[in-house]
Known about the structure:
- By secondary structure, the chain is mainly β.
- Among the domains are: about 1-115 and about 255-350; about 130-160 and about 180-210 and about 600-745, no CATH class.
- It is built from six helices and 68 strands.
- Strand 11 and strand 12 form a beta hairpin.
- Helix 3 (about 245-250) crosses helix 4.
- The protein is elongated, with a radius of gyration of 33 Å.
- Residues about 1-20, about 120-175, about 180-205, about 210-225, about 515-545 and about 750-790 have low confidence and may be disordered.
Amino acid sequence: MSLTAWAVPWPWPASTIGSCCSRVCTRSKTTSGHIQFDNCNFENGHIQVHGPGTCQVKFCTFKNTHVFLHNVPLCMLENCEFVGSENNSVTVEGHPSADKNWAYKYLLGLIKSSPILLPAEDHEFLMSLDLESRDQAWSPRTCDIVIEGSQSPTSPASTSPKPGSKTDSQEAEVGSDGERVAQTPDSSDGGLSPSGEDEDDEQLTYRLSYQVQGPRPVLGGSFLGPPLPGASIQLPSCLVLNSLHQELQKDKEAMALATSVQGCLIRKCLFRDGKGGVFVCSYGRAKMEGNIFRNLTYAVRCIHNSKIVMLRNDIYRCRASGIFLRLEGGGLIAGNNIYHNAEAGVDIRKKSNPLILCNQIHHGLRSGIVVLGNGKGVIRNNQIFSNKEAGIYILYHGNPIVSGNHIFKGRAAGIAVNEDGKGLITENVIRENQWGGVDIRRGGVPVLRSNLICFGYSDGVVVGDEGRGLIEGNTIYANKGCGVWMMSSSLPHVTSNHVSYNGLYGVAVFSQKEGSGEFPGGHGAQENFSEDGDAILWETELEKEDDPLRRPVTIALVESNSINHNGASGLFVQSSEALQVITNVIHANGDRGITIVQSSQLTRVANNSISCNRQSGVKVEAQCKVELRGNGIYDNRGHGIITKGDSTAVVENDIIGNRGSGLQLLPRSDTKVLKNRIHSFRAYGIAVRGRAKALVQENIIFQGKANKTIFQQITNNCECIMQNNKFLVFKKKSDTWRLVNPPARPHLENSGRGSSAAHSGHKVTAMATRISARVEGGYHSNRSIFCTIL
C-alpha cells in the first residue's frame, strides 16, 4: 500500500495533516506542507520532505526504508525503529530553510516543552585514587660533615683500616670499574645521615656547613609518596570528571548547542542491523537525543559544513567508526556511550571541529578517537578506556585540544601523536595503559602540558624517531618502564616535569634507530584510515598561524625537571646527538643520578642538583664528551663523579658529602677539573686510577677522614697535572667551613622555568599526595620497554 502526501497551497487546514495507523506504507513526499505519521510500518520505501515542509513521525517502524530531509526547517522523529537499511536510514541535507510553514511553530513549541535528555549526574566508574599529602619540599638545608685529624693532604694510598673495625664495616664496596656502593640501610627518601654517627668517640670532630639551594619540585612544592602495593586508587576532587550538567553550565557555547532546535530532531529511536544510521551533509543540521545505534556499518556521518548535536546516545557494534566527521563538520557530541566498535569511536578529519564532551568511549577494536587530515576539535572531560589501540590517536596534521580526560586501561598508548600530528594535550589523567602513556613519533609535535601520567605498564612518555614537541609540567609517576623515554635526534623539549617512582630510568635518552614496522601508538605503518578501504591522499598544508606554545628547539633539552625516586638512574644517556641537561633536581634514584654511556657529541650538564642517589652522582663511560658545570652533587652513596670519558670537563661544581670519592678518574680518561669545591666523607677528594690524563687546577678540596688523603694517585702519572689547588685540612676542633662566595650550587639566577606550566597546571599541582600501585620491572637495554623504534 502506498500513501502519498503532495504539496498543496500553504497554509493547510488541520484536516489535511497526513496520518495513518497500523498500515504498511512505501512512499511519502511533501515539499511545503506538513506530514505526520503515528504507529506506522514502512517497508522498502522512502519518505521525502523538502523545506519549507515539516514532518512529525512517532512510534513507527522502518524496514529498509529511507527518510530523506532536504532543507527542512524542523522535523521530529520519535520512538521509531529503523531496521535493515541498505544505505542511510535518515539523510539530512542542506541548511534549514528560512521559509516556514504553518506547522513550524506548533513543532517548535512541542520540542521546547519536552525536557532535554541530559543526565542529572554522571556516574563515575572510573577509578579511585588515594592521594595523601606529603610535603617534602626541596628546601635549603644545613649539613654537618664530620672529619678526623689532619695528615699530609697529598700522598699515595693510605693503609687500610684494621680488619673488623667499625670504619671497615662501613666502607663502600668497590666494583670492577672503581664505582662504590655504600652498604648502609635504606632511608625513606634515599638521603644520608652525614653526621658522623659511625665515627669513634676519640676522634676529633670538625664541621663543614653548607646549604643546598636546589630547584624546588615543580608541582606545588610537594613530592608524590611511594606507591603502595594493593592499595586503592582515588583521585582528589580537583581531578574527578565533571558531570555533563556542570560542563554545560561553565561552557556557554556548549549550552547553546545543547539547547538549540534546528533541522531534524531524532529522539529515542533505535537504528539496528543495517548499513548507516544518520547521514548529515551539505550544511545540514540534526540533533539526536537518547537513541540507540547498534550493528550498523556506521552510526552517524557529518560532512560538508554540517552540524550535529548528539546527547546521551548509545553507539555500539558498528563495523566502521561510530561517529564520523569530515569536511568541516562540527557540533556537540556529549554524554554518549560509544563502545565495541570495529573502528574508532569518533573519527575527525579534514578540518572538522566538533566539541566532544563527557562521553564514555571504550572497548573499541581500534582507537577511541582519531583526529587526522587537518581535523581539529575540542576533546574534553571524557572517559576513554579499554580500547585495543590508542585512546586518542592524532596524525596527518590533526590538531585538537585534548583536556581534562581520563584515558586508562588501553591495550596500546593512552595518546599517540604520529605522522605530523599536533595538538594541545593538557590536564588529562592517563593511567594503566599497556604502551606509553603518551607516544610521540614520526613528525608528531604536540604540546603535552600538566597531565598526570601514571601506573602505565610501559613508559610514561615515549618520544620516538622524528617525534618532537614540548613536554612541560606533567606528573609522570609509577610507570613500570621509564618516566620519559626519548630519542635525542627528535629534539624533544622536556621541562618542568615531576618524574618519580617509575620502575626504570626517570629520563632515558637514546639515538639508535632500529626495529620493525610496528610501533606502540596503536596502528601499523601501512594504515590508510579509509572507511571504505580505499587509499587516501591527505592534505599536507600546515597551519599558517604560529603557535605561541612552541618555541624553537635546536638541541634536545631536559631542563627544570624534578627526577626522583626512580628505580634506575635518574637520567640515562646513550646518544650520538648533542644534549643539554639544565637546572634539574635529580634526587634519591635507585641507581646513579646521571649515567652517560654514549655521548659522541657534547652532553652539557649544568646547574643541576644531584643528591642522595643510591650509587654515584654522575658516571661518564669511555669515549663520551661531557661538560659538568655549576652542579651541586651532594650526599650520593657512591662517588660524586666517576669518569672514563675521553673528553670530560668538570668545572665550578660543588661535590660535597658523597660516600665514595668526590671525583674518581679511571684509566684512559681525559678530564679537566677546574674551580670545583670537593669533599668526601670517607674517601678521597680526588682519586686518580691508573694512567688517567687530567688537569686539576684551581680547586678547593676539603679533607675527609683522617685515614684518607685529599688526593690519591695510584701510580706515578706524569699526565696528571696539579696546579693552584687549595687543600683545606682541619687543625682545631672548633674549625668550621662554609660554602660561601659563591654560595652552594646550583645557582638559578633569573630562572623563569615552568612559568606557563604553573598557570595551566593548577589541577595537577593539587596531586601533592600519595598515589599507590605496584611498580615492577628490570632495566632497559637500548630501547623502550615494549617499544620498537622505526
